Amino acid sequence: MAEPSRNPARAFEPWQDPNAEPFLRIEGVTKTFGKVYAVDDVSLDIYRGEFFSLLGGSGCGKSTLLRVVAGFEIPDKGRVIIDGVDVTRLPPYERPVNMMFQSYALFPHMTVEQNVAFGLHQEGMARSEVGDRVARMLELVQLGQLGRRKPDQLSGGQRQRVALARALAKQPKILLLDEPLGALDKRLRERTQFELVNIQERVGTTFIVVTHDQEEAMTMSSRIGVMEAGRIVQISTPSALYEYPATRFVAEFIGGVNMLTGTVMEQADDRLTVRCHELEADVVARHAQPIPLGTDVSLAIRPEKIDAVEVAPAADTDNVVSGQVVEIGYLGDVSIYHVKTDKGLVLRVQETHAVRTSDPHYDWGDRLYLVWKPADAIVLTG
Amino acid sequence: MSRPAPPSSNWTLLYQVFTDLYRYIGALGRELRSTRGRYLVILVPVLWLFLFFLVPFLIVLKISFAVSDPSVRPPYTALVAFGAQDTVNLTLSLRNYLMLLADPLYVGAYVRSMIFAGVSTAVALLVGYPIAYGIARARPFARLVLLTLVILPFWTSSLLRSYALIGILKTNGVLNQVLQGIGVIDAPLEILHTNLAVYIGIVYNYLPFMILPLTANLMKLDFTLLEAAADLGARPLSAFLRITLPLSLPGIIAGSLLVFIPALGEFVIPDLLGGPDALTIGRVIWTEFFNNRDWPLAAAVAVAMLALITIPMLVFEYVQNREAGAKR
Question: What is the pLDDT of residue B7?
């Protein structure tokens, strides 16, 4: 999908540039409801033109943080700075941001055109100009024909587009999207993900998306901020988040993972030997930062990084575990095997179906050797 | 779709009963033509309305075409009489209706009643809207308490409450004593037996009828819409005028009709609180019926008033239908 247009996006990494000025600065924002810390001392820099996702489970504070930026919540502590202007105490109607609501919040008594024009009339734009802008916005979201319809005469996907057009119409400095695809069915959601990215690239507006769907965040975002219990635990690009999670929570939240625990026995350069509790055996991981011997660590291994073979590998191979297939999940493109090791631990292994065949690679009860490279084990302290 | 479930309190139920009542009256003919299943369902209310609304109305309509005759009992002539040569004579007198137009007393009473009812409705709307908004926005428990407070006066007879208002408004009444006591005024205000007293009485008595349907309507309002309006640059007043107000229009119309229609025929309040010049339709009907014993004229006044009420009711019906059509 649109491979050429991805290349400039890949070069777009302003957070790597120490001289880049953040477009949105969130400084030490705390917001409590009663005794509950919804947002707990969050600091975050987002750059112009980014597609930034706030990812987390329900109640992690991601929506509250978005509402602080929109102006619906005044933080107890901290500041919100947009394009150099402190907006912390500005009411929503004076902020240069617009929001696309999870429920879309379309005005039911207005037509699609009137909905999109609402914000433009509020800023006193001339009538002829409003018409032009509304037409362009509806064109952008491919709703040109439906301008005279009322929201309840539209499908869910069409309503979502109206909400997007309405939020973009005022050309905000930042567009905030609260679960923008949450109300759509799976097929429509996948298609809309790419459309949203396309529209963002065309208008160039900075997008901040709140979502609980990690796949959605991975597909669309330039960077993702993972939130847990009111705090941001990691901010990374999608691939860095997946391959180099900072904590156990992130590793388990993003994608499938096998989690092992163990004690550090030896570290020679970047070769870390860990006595694994579950396997009652030594496993090897690559880890350059020094870790004191005897430290308890977690090892996260992605299911697709594990190789399953029927023939025993050479004796000096690192990280070999034998076990029996107990569960098979056939997903079409891949199969997930649950392999029970001799010590009773169940490991998830993913095999890609690169060749067309109706035979699964392995069957229930098959004895397999599981192998993974030391570099593929993610070492997590803490 | 994502609209919150309709709240099910006693008061919304009451509101439903009221609106349904109006709807049934207006839609009687249409309902009768609909499918058999619906016909069965509405049979009970239709029967009820037929017996207790339509039949009495037809009797009143009949009397309005008779001629007053105090010497017989009931005091009016029969419409149907057997004449000579085996004929049946149907005599419909238009005298009463012509009198309504000819005598400025009646036209004046209609106009006065319209003004009383119209102004009272407007005041009740201005007073009731903020109250209804506050109740709708309150937390569930507070909402229940506030609604109870609004409905509580209903437990006392309207007549009793009007007498109580006399005690408050009269020259040496509670209001004047308090105002004089704290030094706001030197001489007592003459409120009782003025039009102002009538307005106070009507607004006070009918305010719950305004507040209840408005509250039921405003409770359904999605607060996110106001956030969206603010987000798009609308200041609170602008958001109210362009979002809240248009969306609460059905509630405004329902409440206004529930106040306007009974206020139009109100007899007790203008009689007790108003001056002798506060001659409303209700008082005219009373005078014609009980003092002059002119039943046919009283009936004609009543029928003409019903016609006046039907017009706003049809407007209400039209708006409701249009809204129902838009939802489909």
Answer: 45
Q: List the domain range (segments joined by +) for residue B243.
A: 10-327
To the question of pTM greater than 0.90 for the whole model, the response is no
Asked if A325 and A358 sit in the same domain, the reply is yes
Residue B46, pLDDT above cutoff 90: no
CA distances (Å), origin A237, targets A18, A217, A323, B55, B224: 17, 10, 35, 79, 32
Secondary structure element (H or E) that encloses residue B166, with its range: helix B158-169
Residues of chain A positioned with their CB less than 8 A from the CB of B228: 99, 101, 105-107
First to last CA, chain B: 13
Looking at A245, A267, A291, which one is the last position of a domain?
Answer: A245
Q: Report the largest interatomic distance among the alpha carbons of chain A, rounded to a whole angstrom.
A: 79
Average pLDDT along chain A, 382 residues, taken 10 residues at a time? 43 82 94 93 94 93 95 96 95 96 95 96 93 94 91 93 95 95 86 90 93 92 94 94 92 91 90 91 90 92 92 88 91 90 91 80 87 92 76
Say whether both A260 and A225 belong to one domain.
Answer: no
Chain A hits for B230, Cβ within 8 Å: 71-72, 91-93
Question: Residue A12: its pLDDT value, please?
Answer: 79
Q: Which two tokens stand for residue A347?
A: 């490991």
> Residue B188 to residues A217, B51, B170, B192, B194: CA-CA distances in angstroms?
74, 51, 9, 11, 14
Whether A122 sits inside 8 A of B233 (CB atoms) is yes
How high is the pLDDT of residue B16? 67
pLDDT in tens, B276-302: 888 999 999 999 999 999 999 999 999
User: Which residues of chain B neighbour A107 with C-beta distances below 8 Å?
Assistant: 225, 228-229, 243
Query: Does the residue A250 lie in any domain?
Result: no
The total domain count for chain B is: 1
Q: Which residue of A has its CA nearest to B3?
A: A103
Distance from CA of A70 to the nearest CA of B (A): 7
Instruction: Pick B225's closest partner by Cβ from A105, A152, A170.
Output: A105
CB atoms within 10 A of CB B292: 13
Q: Where is pLDDT greater, at B32 or A99? A: A99
Q: What is the CATH number of the domain that holds B186?
A: 1.10.3720.10
Please determine, for the modelled complex, whether the ipTM score is greater than 0.90.
no
Interface membership of B245 toward A (CB under 8 Å) = no
Domain termination site, one of A245, A264, A289: A245
- Closest Cβ–Cβ partner in B227, B233, B238 for A72: B227
Query: In this structure, are A184 and A213 located in the same domain?
Result: yes
Does any CB of chain A come closer than 8 Å to the CB of residue B229?
yes
Q: CA of A5 to nearest chain B CA: how many angstroms apart?
A: 31
